[in-house]
Amino acid sequence: MALVVIFVLGIGNFALHKAVLESGHPLLGQMPGFVHMLGGRFTMATEFLILFAALLLAANGWPGLAWAYLGYSCLNALAAWLILTDRV
User: Fold this and answer.
1) Is the Cα dihedral 63, 47, 15, 28 positive or negative?
2) Is the pLDDT of residue 21 over 90?
3) The pTM is what?
4) Which band of pLDDT confidence, cut at 50, 70 and 90, is reported for residue 24?
5) Contact, 87 vs 26, CB < 8 A?
6) How far apart (Å, rounded) are the C-alpha atoms in residues 60 and 12?
7) Partner of 34 at 20 to 30 A CA spacing, among 24, 26, 40, 84?
8) Are 54 and 69 in contact (CB under 8 A)?
9) What is the DSSP string of 7-42?
10) d(CA 9, CA 6)
11) Could you give the CA distance from residue 29 to residue 60 in angstroms, rounded to a whole number?
């Protein structure tokens, strides 16, 4: 069950990440150069590595990691909401 929860949250994280990258928000222009490498694919790869690590750990006896990934996803959602609604 933890794997399903983490996977679904991961899909949401990818969607939010892509929406922020495509928003054209001025805050993105202030990010370091490595963030813009390959048109944002570098940060998407980082997001994938976090999801992959969470799935591997949960599959190997750490089902409580789903709670940690839920917290991470909530922070991502809050940050995306702040950026996409121009509150930052």
Assistant:
1) positive
2) no
3) 0.87
4) confident
5) no
6) 23
7) 84
8) yes
9) HHHHHHHHHHHHHHHHT--HHHHTS-GGGGGGGGHH
10) 5
11) 39
Closest CA to 72 of 1, 16, 4: 16
Contact call for residues 85 and 27 (beta carbons, < 8 A): no
**Are 84 and 23 in contact, with CB atoms under 8 Å apart?**
yes
Per-residue confidence at 33, pLDDT binned at 50, 70, 90? confident
Give the residue among 41, 51, 46 at the shortest CA–CA distance from 72: 51
Report the first-to-last Cα separation within the chain, whole angstroms.
36
Q: How many CB atoms lie within 10 A of CB 17?
A: 19
Q: Classify 61 in phi/psi space as left (phi over 0), alpha (psi -120 to 50) or beta.
A: left
- At 66 the pLDDT is 93
User: Considering its fold, how many domains does the chain have in total?
Assistant: 1
